[in-house]
């Protein structure tokens, strides 16, 4: 399966959901024709304005779901909707929504690993559900930023022939080298495509690194963004994954009996 991708590497206005919705709409107007799948970054509505999430978070994600579903339908694209701050009676979660090109919600995933360096554990609650879904006939998974530092969690998503891993992030500039290295390792060790969208710009506490990136299953870079706002375009063809997994049969050679 070939997929034409567009990673919307935007700057996120701190705590201003309406400004950010306008920005996303503006980016969609600039989108190339014949794109299959669009990816947005982490917490793209609010940014890391965590202390105000009770006010600016999205009740049950209703607003974001409607907004994303309409965009997916209007532009006839599958949409990895980054993540947003979803409020519920349990607390606020960092939640990704995935829509198909008919505007149907395919998946809701909430960040499993909270990042203490950016105070997530003070304002957010984690979740324990998997990130797996099927998009455009392709077994896929979606994870959020810090989640990629946990190869055992990523592996769980890749078991069962998952071929594409989508990652959405607000990853700070000083650790862009970690971002690229970790994503490359996840691609190589899982023999999968990794499609990762990071924001750019700054908030009061961090400068963000961009470098949204697409890796192939050999760890080869297929597309990479700069550190500026842009749409990063890439294309993947998943037809080689099975052959690579036969050549070096990592999934068959696993010894889960040892990994305790
Ligand atoms: N938003 C995040 O989860 C950031 C993770 C991060 O910066 C890291 O180094 O890990």
Automatic annotation (TrEMBL):
PANTHER family to which the protein is assigned, alphabetical: DEAMINATED GLUTATHIONE AMIDASE, NITRILASE-RELATED
Organism: Salimicrobium flavidum
Keyword Metal-binding in annotation: no
InterPro entries in UniProt: C-N_Hydrolase, C-N_Hydrolase_sf
Domain CN hydrolase intervals: 3-238
One function term, GO molecular function aspect: hydrolase activity
Family: Belongs to the carbon-nitrogen hydrolase superfamily. NIT1/NIT2 family.
Protein name: Predicted amidohydrolase
Superkingdom as given in the UniProt entry: Bacteria
Keyword terms, alphabetized: Hydrolase
SUPFAM superfamilies cross-referenced by the UniProt entry: Carbon-nitrogen hydrolase
């Amino acid at each position: 399966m070939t997929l034409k991708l567009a990673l919307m590497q935007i700057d996120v206005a701190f705590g201003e959901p309406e400004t950010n919705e306008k920005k996303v709409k503006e980016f969609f107007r600039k989108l190339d024709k014949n794109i299959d799948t669009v990816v947005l970054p982490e917490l793209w509505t609010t940014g890391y304005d965590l202390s105000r999430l009770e006010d600016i978070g999205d009740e049950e994600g209703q607003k974001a779901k409607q907004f994303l579903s309409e965009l997916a339908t209007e532009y006839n694209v599958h949409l990895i909707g980054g993540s947003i701050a979803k409020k519920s009676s349990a607390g606020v979660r960092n939640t990704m929504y995935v829509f198909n090109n008919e505007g149907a919600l395919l998946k809701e995933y909430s960040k499993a690993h909270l990042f203490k360096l950016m105070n997530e554990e003070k304002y957010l609650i984690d979740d324990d559900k998997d990130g797996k879904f099927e998009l455009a006939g392709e077994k896929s998974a979606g994870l959020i930023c810090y989640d990629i530092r946990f190869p055992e969690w990523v592996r769980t998503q890749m078991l069962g022939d998952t071929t594409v891993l989508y990652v959405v992030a607000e990853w700070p500039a000083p650790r862009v080298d970690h971002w690229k290295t970790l994503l490359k390792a996840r691609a190589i060790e899982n023999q999968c495509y990794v499609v990762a969208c990071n924001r750019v710009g700054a908030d009061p506490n961090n400068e963000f690194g961009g470098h949204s990136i697409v890796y192939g299953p050999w760890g080869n870079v297929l597309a990479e963004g700069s550190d500026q706002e842009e749409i990063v375009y890439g294309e993947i063809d998943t037809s080689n994954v099975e052959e690579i997994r036969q050549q070096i049969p990592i999934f068959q050679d696993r010894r889960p009996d040892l990994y305790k």
